[in-house]
Amino acid sequence: MQLRYAFRLYPSAVQQTALARAFGCARAVFNDAVRAREDARQAGRPFPTAGELSRKLITEAKRTAQRAWLGEISAVVLQQSLRDAETAYRNFFASLKGTPKGPKPGPPRLKSRKDHRQSIRFTANARWKITVAGRLDLPKIGAVKVKWSRTLPATPTSVTVVRDAAGRFFASFVIDTDPARMPATDQTVGIDLGLTHFAVLSDGTKIDSPRFLRRAEKKLKKAQWELSRKQKGSKNRAKARLKVARAHAKVADARREFHHRLSTKLISENQGIAVEDLSVAGLARTRLAKSVHDAGWASFVNMLEYKAARYGRTLVKIGRFEPTSQTCSTCGAKDGPKPLNVREWTCSACGTVHDRDHNAALNIETAAGLAVSACGAPVRPGPVLAQREETGSHGFPTGNHAA
């Protein structure tokens, strides 16, 4: 399976200038490819092939006065930018046919130098390397200082250099590794995700919601106010924008760290995990939108998903319409819907007093087939191992995505 590890980079001032030049060249080639295909579409001609674009937009363009500066960076970066354009068009055309599920991507758009995220990619052909001193040696950029948070488990197949909105640089390595295995355990758990508590487990454990965004709102509000007072296009406005971006990055980093620690703990302690397939996009359109985004349920479940696949655990998602909050986990009687302000209720059939979230977690575990009956048999047929085609890849900044 493929894993992606991300590490913080600390380029010097000269290296930052070289990276900015590389970002600009890659962006120009990408935009030229989009324009070439759009011109061909409007003229009714067939789309130019990848080979034709490579020859025209890179090889021949370097010989012109308008694009001579493309020769100042590695040719591999320019080729990878063309591949990114091809992939963007391929994904767009596939979405028109209804092939992939989920949100439909739009047609590729032109990139701007003002985009908050800039990136370039080096493959093995670029002859980049990690030096003996632990620096990342990139062609025509130099040996960049890296903050290694852990040792890479294998030789990387590529490296992507990213600059985020907060002005930080990261190196992202793609690693081909075999799935690891944790010691087997007979424990299973059902998880009810919420806002009052981030998660309530079927064993009764309640995990408080850190509410990182809510706690940082006062600081963010002040930074946003200062930004709004600065004149557009001024250097002070650029500094204020960077301050806002760094404040948001701090919140996102803290949330991601919390998700990583909790998901790793649950994966290591339980052989089977059950969660509810929540409609985060739908909940984000309600009055609870800010709290829903602050919780980051989708990111947390994605971490559970790829870690379960990596470590040989079982993850089961039950349907979002399963009446977990309406059903008594003791007798199975359905007691009807209840408003959100009802946190405890008594079953009308057996008289059991339930904590709303704990009862839902028990029902989630049962609905997933992980709960065991008195005779020791599963309540429902066993689940299948969660599959993940590729680990998280573009959610920068982060310590690394394989935590």
Descriptive account of the structure:
This protein has 403 residues and is an alpha+beta fold. It contains 9 helices and 14 strands. A 7-stranded antiparallel β-sheet has the order 2-6-7-1-5-4-3. It has a 5-stranded mixed β-sheet with strand order 10-9-8-11-12, sandwiched between helices. Helix 4 (212-228) packs antiparallel against helix 5 (235-269). The protein starts with a strand and ends in a 36-residue tail after the last helix.
What's the SSE blueprint?
Layout: E1 2-10, H1 13-43, H2 50-59, H3 75-96, E2 118-123, E3 129-130, E4 136-138, E5 142-147, E6 158-163, E7 169-176, E8 188-193, E9 197-201, E10 206-208, H4 212-228, H5 235-269, E11 272-276, H6 280-283, H7 289-295, H8 297-311, E12 314-318, E13 344-346, E14 353-355, H9 356-367
Helix pairs in contact: 1-3, 2-3, 4-5, 5-8
Question: Structural class, from secondary structure content?
Answer: alpha+beta
Query: Could you tell me the number of beta strands?
Result: 14
The strand order across the widest sheet is 2-6-7-1-5-4-3
What would you call the quaternary organization?
A: single chain
**Rounded average pLDDT:** 88
Proportion of helical residues: 25-40%
Query: Over the alpha carbons, how many angstroms does the gyration radius reach?
Result: 25 Å
Q: Count of helical segments?
A: 9
Q: Could you state the order of secondary-structure elements as H and E?
A: EHHHEEEEEEEEEHHEHHHEEEH
Strand content: 15-25%
Distance between the termini: 15 Å
Low-pLDDT ranges: 372-403
Task: Choose one word for the global shape.
Answer: elongated
Largest sheet: 7 strands, antiparallel
